[in-house]
Amino acid sequence: MNPITEHNSRETLSPLKAEAKKLNFYYGNFQALKNINMPIYEKKVTSLIGPSGCGKSTYLRCFNRMHDLYPGNRYEGAIEFHPDRTDLLSKKVDPIEVRMRISMVFQKPNPFPKSIYENVAYGLRVRGESARSVIDDKVEAALRSAALWGEVKDRLKELGANLSGGQQQRLCIARALATDPELLLFDEPTSALDPIATASIEELITELKERVTILIVTHNMQQAARISDFTAYMYIGEMVEFGVTDQIFIKPKRKETEDYITGRFG
Amino acid sequence: MTDHTSKNFDLELESLRTYVLKMGGAAEQQVRKAIEGLYSGDQAFLETVIRDDDRINQMEIDIDALCNQVIAKRQPTAIDLRMIVSVLKVISDLERIGDKARKVARLGITLSSLSGDGVLNEGLNHMTEIALKMLRLALDGFARVDVSLATEAVHLDKLVNAEYQSISRQLITYMMEDPRAITRSLDTLTIAKAIERVGDHATNIAESVVYMAKGLNVRHISADEIEDRIARS
Q1: Considering only alpha carbons, which residue of chain B is nearest residue A258?
Q2: Which one of A42, A160, A196, B190 is at 20 to 30 Å from B206 when CA atoms are compared?
Q3: ipTM here
Q4: E strands, chain A, where?
Q5: Could you tell me the domains of chain B?
Q6: Domains (ranges, CATH) in chain A?
Q7: What pTM value is reported for the model?
């Protein structure tokens, strides 16, 4: 299966934020990603869809070098990060530096066992920021961007875990935003949330793309259709099709994609 | 096309497809009967054609409701979405074809009560045959998701239009030759126009089939261009 990455004129209007080039990934001897070539366009939302085990989360985690945390994992190829074209996977690149530029939000809200304020301030402190006024401003800005400020501004000292599920997830988004990342990774950010909280996160993602590039893994195809500009369909470690979301959901080029999105899979 | 994981979804789409074909068959039959009644002058027969149009109208409403249910329940995508969007357009064209048959039947009743020589000729019969052939091809194309049948239908529309021009010239000649033939000729012209419109609706249906099968929007372009776009897709 060759990935289909030819683009129409609308796509090329947007500059690249990142690009996977001949990316392979191995968990020990098991090859989880096979020759992934895929662009990520700046200030756009790109969705990764595909059945469980297809490699979409594995791919997402390559971007912030999460796989470095476990021995035996191995990358091949490159993920070029623009505009400086840094290869995120290069051994010379410090994963901590990478994570300063690329933040991640997970499936289950995972606030630190700290106050709401400290959850958001954490990344700034790690980065070495100590001026109280700067941190105050950035915490407020991040909470506002995550559409949470109004709900928590009078209870910043309370534990993050006291918030509702949807609020906790927005807190995690605020935490991810506090360090001004260039790319935000979402790994099924709404699968543990009710429909209302899901809608508010989706709305938030649509607002955030004005400022930051977003890559999202979702099991909910309608969510991919609703919020993303580009969609990639992955299957057993390969990128089967990449294209403009409208095209993928109305007239996919490949039968495998069509079978999956129309529910003919399996 | 392989089956959906959801068997009910398959059943819903299948019943939708079957229902559209049934409605298509009914519309074709209505046109055929209206023309038959027109030539035979059988008023009672034409009355039944007029009454039966209600069945087609009801089918449109039912299929429309089915489409809405499928969209609400299944959030169809890709070929399924294109099929449902096409069905919604196709049934609207079929309903209009039903209306044309009713119009022909009404005028048939009027004409049969007028005195004087008939101004009907084989041209109208011939034109009706081509228009109905177009409709059958388009519906077969729909049933088999086959664009070659659909494009064949679109090509035939030229013949229908040419036949209409010829009938219209002939009727103008009648009217010039004998002013007493004007009323009959104008009614006949309206009938010919109705059949010509049946051809246009069949063309629309064929274009919906191309959209369903290929995701290509081929409205407002010639049959040759349609073939060209399909070849390039």
Answers
A1: B78
A2: B190
A3: 0.79
A4: 16-27, 30-41, 45-49, 73-81, 86-87, 102-105, 183-187, 213-217, 230-235, 238-244
A5: 7-232 (1.20.58.220)
A6: 3-261 (3.40.50.300)
A7: 0.85
